[in-house]
Amino acid sequence: MKDWNIIVTIYQEGFRRALRALHDVGPAERGPYHNVLVMKADDPMAVLESVERLTEERPALYDAIARVAPAMRVFDFSSAENFKDNAKSILLQWLPSLAGKSFHARLHQRGPKLGLHTPVVERFLNDVIIEATAKAGQPGRISFTDPDAVIVIDTVDDRAGLAMWAREDIARHRLLRPD
């Protein structure tokens, strides 16, 4: 499934159980990497909520699913520069929600790195937000302890999914696990 907008990572020994259960929610396919499933949905948040309900009904499923990562925005990229340009463009659109807030960025990569080094990319994303919020007169600040928001980027090969989760989202959705 090339046009995924949800990634589900699975704990060891839980793959078949999770794959069967996710088919009750929507189309799910094996990703190209170990213990990774990909899904496509019109409403990725509804999928997250459905999966969470399933884990409440079937506790063994909660032990199988490590993380559900719905993307608010997705893009394909062909190089590190192309990736950075696309990610920056999206972050700048989200700026009003980050102004004056604490935050940090997380990158979860699967596949060829294409020149993307996780700490360098996370630092780049954090710097984009710091610069833009300061320029807007409402500086944000990086925090790894109870931030107001976490920017999460997941990649599978040359496709990236971005999401921004507020502290309340992370507290409400136990399968988000952005860090």
TrEMBL record:
The protein's name in its UniProt record = THUMP domain-containing protein
- Gene source species: Bradyrhizobium sediminis
Q: What is the lineage of its organism?
A: Bacteria, Pseudomonadati, Pseudomonadota, Alphaproteobacteria, Hyphomicrobiales
